[in-house]
Amino acid sequence: LGVKGKIDRAREFYEQARVELKKITWPTRKETVNTGVAVLILVVVMALFLGLVDLGLARLIEFILA
Questions:
Q1: CA distance linking residue 43 with residue 62, whole number of Å
Q2: pTM value?
């Protein structure tokens, strides 16, 4: 492929990408906020859970080794 061929392929790829992006159904602001809040809540819950598991295992190991 020459330079012209590569440019033509890049242009075709760009056009196809634009067509595909127009087909996307983007979430509404409300859906995005709700999903973001759900993710944050899940992250906090998982962090607390893993922190408690870590604390419990640390105390168990300390008890076994002491």
A1: 28
A2: 0.64
